[in-house]
Amino acid sequence: MATKKTEDKAPAKKTSVSPVAGTNGGPLTGKIAKSKHFTQKQLKEQLRRLLELRERVSGEILSINRDSLSHTDPDPSLSDQGTDTFDREFALNQLSNEQDVLFEIDEAIRRIENGTYGICEMTEVAINIERLEALPYVRYSVQAQAELEKGRKTYRPFGSTIHSM
pTM for the whole thing? Predict the structure, then answer.
């Protein structure tokens, strides 16, 4: 009986990103959906940049927590207490800003996953790739952003409403 020689095949190279826990919902898979405005190569590069940025921002959040907010030694001097309070409030503000950026990054990754990345949420036109390269988690085209700023409206990332100031 002749035995058939089998060849060992190398495992296929994996192109998807390992899952990352999102800030508001299920895990981010890193799968790239089809887009009629961008190539798979462009989307893959943007996903890579978003994941690197996410890692850096997460590290900054941990650093702020560790360095600024965990300091609990009370200082007997009133002037030093005022400085400590100011430093703590500054760190909390910085932490809040970093968490907002992390939210926006996660939402941009979700848009890559569902095929809506790079589409202006206000005008539904494609956002210029140069703008996305400069700020990969941007939601609006330059024109829509200008309109939002002109009207002094701000977008709140934790809801889908736009509020006037």
Answer: 0.67
Q: From first to last of its 165 residues, what are the pLDDT tens digits of the chain?
A: 444 444 444 443 333 444 445 544 556 666 787 777 788 899 999 999 999 999 999 999 998 888 776 655 665 666 677 787 888 888 888 889 999 999 999 999 999 999 999 999 999 999 999 999 999 999 999 999 998 888 765 555 555 444 444
Q: Which domains does the chain have, with CATH numbers?
A: 37-164 (1.20.120.910)
Contact 30, 51 (CB under 8 A): yes
Token code pair at residue 116: 């809506």
| Rounded (5°) CA angle 88-93-95 | 90
